[in-house]
């Protein structure tokens, strides 16, 4: 059984939750479950026992290093999988095959084949499957979607979306960057955003990419990528890179422009509304998550707690497994296009 860190009883009739992978982003899932009045955090899992123990102690729950203990547990209703990009399939299938509802960090998977396996496992057991595209809850993008749906910029025709990181992310922050890349770590955010805002499916991708800088540091992945994606009645350019200078004032370079038939929407996310100048100049990344008066707040908690609501109330999540599959299919087509030098159809 999982190791015990819980020290007091909790209210009953709550959605009983667990988190597999509590590294870079997974602890946010643990915090969201632990602090939400409709859920109880039962257990966290990480391959590093010290990290699992640390998070369990902070959020007053059990911990384990074996994901199958969570899958087997009869005390858990729903699970978040927040393992690295390339390592979603095994924990997702273990969770679904044990009859538990699943929230998985983006991307759903790093191949269409794996995404389809996860989706089919959820469908065959009539389980909730949600992908955590949390930027659909990011206030500027919520407002942008509302403007588009209200017809205030006309029919969407063209978009440009850029999300990049400084070099420190693949070289210092992530120990597994060579098994992923900016195309899986960053592009799913913006690909899903534009597909959602357009309300259209992608049909073809032309991609260009470059390798070299990261390879010289022993990280075999893309330095930078651009993809031109043709949608049903619009098109979009997506740009991502992992080689921006570490002097960048924010950990993200995040900008979105959407041109409609009668207007334009622009969002500059990286500046965030706060500047700090001291020994360096920076834009703190504060809107996603902050501790305020001993409680965690920020838009990244909203989709996690929405997932709890969907499990508790038997509702379909706002972001589905099909949305995750669509994003993976667009990116996979883009990589195939880079490798072939030709436009590639999006088929899923």
Task: Characterise the protein shown here.
- There is one protein chain.
- The protein is α/β, with parallel strands linked by helices and 348 residues long.
- The chain has helices at 26-35, 49-59, 67-72, 89-97, 112-124, 139-149, 168-173, 182-185, 187-198, 301-313, 321-340, and strands at 15-20, 39-45, 62-64, 78-81, 101-105, 129-132, 156-164, 202-210, 224-231, 235-241, 253-260, 264-268, 276-277, 281-282, 290-292, 295-297, 344-345.
- The strands form 4 sheets. Strands 12-11-7-10-9-8-17 form a 7-stranded mixed β-sheet.
- A hairpin with a 3-residue loop joins strand 11 and strand 12 (264-268).
- Helix 1 packs across helix 10 and helix 9 crosses helix 11.
- The protein is globular and about 50 Å long.
- Residues 6-10 have low confidence and may be disordered.
How far apart are the termini? 40 Å
Name of the CATH first level of the largest domain? Alpha Beta
Rg (C-alpha, Å)? 20 Å
For the secondary structure, the number of strands is: 17
CATH topology of the largest domain: Dihydrodipicolinate Reductase, domain 2
Assign the CATH superfamily of the largest domain. Answer: Dihydrodipicolinate Reductase, domain 2
Please give the count of helices: 11
**What letter string, H or E per element, gives the SSE order?**
EHEHEHEHEHEHEHHHEEEEEEEEEHHE
- The share of residues in helices is 25-40%
Shape: globular
């Amino acid at each position: 059984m999982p190791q015990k860190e819980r020290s007091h009883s909790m209210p009953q009739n709550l959605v009983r939750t667990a988190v597999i992978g509590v590294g870079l982003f997974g602890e946010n899932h643990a915090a969201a479950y632990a602090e939400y009045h409709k859920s109880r955090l039962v257990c966290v899992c990480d391959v590093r026992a010290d990290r699992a123990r640390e998070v369990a102690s902070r959020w007053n729950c059990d911990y384990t290093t074996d994901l199958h203990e969570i899958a087997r547990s009869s005390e858990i209703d729903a699970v978040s999988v927040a393992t690295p990009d390339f390592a979603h399939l095994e924990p997702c299938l273990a969770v679904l095959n044990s009859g538990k509802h699943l929230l998985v960090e983006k991307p759903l998977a790093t191949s269409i084949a794996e995404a389809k396996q996860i989706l089919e496992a959820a469908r065959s057991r009539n389980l909730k499957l949600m992908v955590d595209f949390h930027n659909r809850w990011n206030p500027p993008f919520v407002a942008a979607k509302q403007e588009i749906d209200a017809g205030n910029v006309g029919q969407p025709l063209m978009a440009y979306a850029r999300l990049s990181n400084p070099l420190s992310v693949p070289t210092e922050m992530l120990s597994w960057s060579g098994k992923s890349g900016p195309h899986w770590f960053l592009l799913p955010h913006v690909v899903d955003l534009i597909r959602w805002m357009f309300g259209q499916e992608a049909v073809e991708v032309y991609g260009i990419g470059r390798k070299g800088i990261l390879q010289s540091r022993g990280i075999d992945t893309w330095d930078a990528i651009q993809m031109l994606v043709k949608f049903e009645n619009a098109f979009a350019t997506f740009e991502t890179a992992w080689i921006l200078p570490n002097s960048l004032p924010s950990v993200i370079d995040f900008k979105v422009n959407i041109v409609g038939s009668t207007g334009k929407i622009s969002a500059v996310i990286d500046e965030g509304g706060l500047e700090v100048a001291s020994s360096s100049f920076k834009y703190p990344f504060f809107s996603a998550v902050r501790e305020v008066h001993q409680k965690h707040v920020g838009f990244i908690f909203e989709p996690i707690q929405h997932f709890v609501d969907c499990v508790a109330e038997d509702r379909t999540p706002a972001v589905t497994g099909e949305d995750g599959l669509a994003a993976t299919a667009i990116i996979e087509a883009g990589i195939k296009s880079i490798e072939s030098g030709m436009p590639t159809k999006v088929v899923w």
